[in-house]
């Protein structure tokens, strides 16, 4: 029986590895580097083409695979930027019509025309994206919604492009245009499968790189991504260009194989169909998006009734799939495999667990195994400098005002912090504490005043630049990447890729170096045993410690903590206090907290805000006896 349970665990671990190829956000540590999912697509697609390519379904296979190229790019673009742009059908048409025009009117080879149009589409997407990606959410969707309408109107009214009739080609992607139609169909099918496998490989390589980890954060929360040093405007633009280039490539390949471009390729219904394929397969899964395209195209040819009522069928299928799992078919598979994995792990543990494992279970449930967290930090970190040795000013907030529609949230706030030490920031609800932290962190610009860091004016610098200058922070609500491990959640703050391009990470990745640095941080905090745990399985205290570890991992000069003790028990607060006391000797910490006892215990200096005004600035002893503090905080 024990052997059976152990074998079940091994089988399930292999099934989990397969689920990584189906989902771009597995509940595990690594995403496939690209070889496995690309090989699966290549082998399976080639077999289908060789078996069915000479029949009528050969053209269906080509169309399915070309749409799958588009949806694979959409999974990276839309799934991780969280921005829907109605541009894929337009760039599909740009690639298809561009190849047709170059081949027909200039007698250019289809292969050369494809290369030229992909390069041209990249330039056009860069120019268009630099404008439209300034918008977000509904504004971006509306701004790009007009693109398919403009495109179909232009194509219909332009005889040069063939008008409603379409545009024929004289050449083909297959080396010999004089070959039989069956050979061209099979050869074309193999070509499009190779291109699809290449696109899947590129997407998987990007997502498994250090920039891929940035994209996971961007896909969860743009504000958190910026605070962790991610250049969010640049990444969103790169994702937009990538999706458009893959769409143009798909259109060019489609035209070169079919030797004809119908007007419908730029129709708004094509854009809608592509989005349905994406969300059915999985909006953040490359292979899921490919499967979504294949499923929809198969349904269209399943029967005449389905073909006539395809919109109804697609709508019902989309609704059912998303009700079961918002992450689509890929999410359903990943959830099933995760459940299998937990079952097998539990069964194997019951079969082989000994006394040592049983003793460790409570610590794992609580999240922190080491009972003496401060001692770990003392041994790992530099010794605290003696009082009075900190003369240089690190942070200076000068006369900061912040108004929202005439409502003053901060009024002439000025504070100065040295290079090391722990400083408390208190005040009643609505006093402006978090707003001041956001002004310092860069996510909220001040209406007036300056923010200086080591004498340099950073008032107008965005959050990602402040992070690179050494400003790190946590948030009131825990902001972690669900579906990723503790190690990856900490590693995202250790990335050295913030200035790199997505293209440069196709061939290489520096994620391993970031993970090594994150592992050292977790070891310093006594959390090494949690490295491979998925963050959503942790307690609130442990999640807050993970977020604190992420903030500490890049060795910041200024650490902003926004209510880290919220939701913790008294024992947990004392453990946090011990760690904060040790941190004061390593860096400058500004602590926003409602627990006045904790603030007085760990802070060498405390600021109190009320109604946006700084009403107290002094030491812990004065803080306890101040009538202003007692009136505002203790009395309330």
Automatic annotation (TrEMBL):
Membrane topology reported for the UniProt record: Multi-pass membrane protein
GO biological process: D-alanine transmembrane transport; L-alanine transport; L-isoleucine import across plasma membrane; L-valine import across plasma membrane
Top-level taxon: Bacteria
Membrane-spanning segments: 35-53, 60-80, 110-131, 138-162, 182-204, 239-261, 273-299, 306-324
Key word DNA damage present: no
Subcellular location: Cell membrane
Entry GO CC: plasma membrane
SUPFAM superfamilies reported for this sequence: P-loop containing nucleoside triphosphate hydrolases (SSF52540)
Matching Pfam families: ABC_tran, BPD_transp_2
An MF annotation (GO) of this entry: ATP hydrolysis activity
Keyword tRNA processing: no
Keywords: ATP-binding, Cell membrane, Membrane, Nucleotide-binding, Transmembrane, Transmembrane helix, Transport
Occurrences of domain ABC transporter (ranges): 395-636
Matches recorded under PANTHER family: AMINO ACID ABC TRANSPORTER ATP-BINDING PROTEIN, CONSERVED COMPONENT OF ABC TRANSPORTER FOR NATURAL AMINO ACIDS-RELATED
Protein name, as recorded: ATP-binding cassette domain-containing protein
Organism of provenance: Trebonia kvetii
